[in-house]
Amino acid sequence: MVVRKEALVSGVEFGTRSRGKPWNRVSGAEEWVDLDRSFISRRYDRLAGLIPFFDWLLFQPPGFRRKAVDRLDLKPGDRALEIGCGTGRNLPFLQQAVGPTGRVYGVDFSPGMLAKARKLRERQEWSNVELIECDAADYVAPEPLDGILFGLSYNTMPHHLTVLHQAWSLLRPGGRLVIMDAKLPPGLGGELVRPFGVWLMKRTMLGNPYIRPWKDLARFTDHICGKESDMSERQREQCWVINNEVVEPPPQIALGKEELTERHHAFIHALEAEGKLVGAGPFLDDTGNRFGTGMIIFRAATRAEAERIANSEPYIAHGVRRLKLLPWQRTAGR
């Protein structure tokens, strides 16, 4: 999510939210309740050595950090700030973008995170990288900034609107602000993973899955270079897998084997013509010999739609095979 600074919209209210547990249940639904900032700082101190593991655990797409920095459109000699710089995983890309004549500022309120970032700076001998331990809401840069990055930090801040307001005030006219963050996939997939996402965030990164950064940015400017669907390099599609079992003993049906096979192939071709087919084929062993019944993968927004499609497959419709329908999310590159 990228915005170019044009003007500050007035009349926006900012402030912290309530303290308490990371989530409550209200009428059967999860409701996020923000935690005290000192608690968050202590949590991140403990997690400082595990950040690379969380990149893997949370399915972060490869190259997404470099892409976020690229969207700042920094040039040699520019001044850049990362809010929530953590252990410094984005600093190499920022430092490379501004070059030796530029300057990079990193702000974080976790001493444990910053200790690792400072070790990285020392190893790389970056003389133009300055790391500051403070609350980003209170940070004032020593000079106007050309670019500001929230690196997977925005939804972990209980006072994110206050921080965004302060960050916006630090940008020079024409500067860029990028929020690199995660969001739940749309549709049924998002509904299914939301309880797990809330549970995982409560025990790890404390990121609020209900925050919508693109809506917050819209309060400041109409010049948003990116949309809600542009929050990640890759998109996830809700798909379904037909993985059948042969019914034994086979039922007596009027159709012959060849006609049933032809109808099965026609079913697959129809899915392809409708743009719903992802893939289909038999199972093959190491020697290339077929075994089992094969698999069909197709797109459908809901389970009800998927069941309707799957039950119309000829082998299933005539009781020759028993339906096993499994949900599957396909990650597709743009």
What does this entry look like structurally?
The chain is α/β, with parallel strands linked by helices. It folds into two domains: 2-232, Vaccinia Virus protein VP39 (Rossmann fold), CATH 3.40.50.150; 236-333, Dimeric alpha+beta barrel (Alpha-Beta Plaits, 2-Layer Sandwich). 33% of the residues lie in helices and 26% in strands. It has eleven helices and 15 strands. It has helices at 37-47, 51-57, 64-70, 91-98, 111-124, 160-170, 187-203, 213-217, 257-273, 303-311, 314-317; strands at residues 2-4, 23-26, 29-32, 79-83, 103-108, 129-133, 145-151, 171-180, 224-225, 234-242, 245-246, 277-284, 290-299, 321-322, 325-333. The strands form four sheets. A seven-stranded mixed sheet has the order 6-5-4-7-8-1-9. A four-stranded antiparallel sheet has the order 12-13-10-15. A two-stranded antiparallel ribbon has the order 2-3. Strand 2 (23-26) and strand 3 form a beta hairpin. The longest helix is centred in the middle third of the chain and has 17 residues, at 187-203. It is elongated. It starts with a strand and ends with a strand. The relative contact order is 0.14. Mean pLDDT is 76; it is low at 4-33 and 227-235.
What's the short story on this structure?
This protein has 334 residues and is an alpha/beta fold.
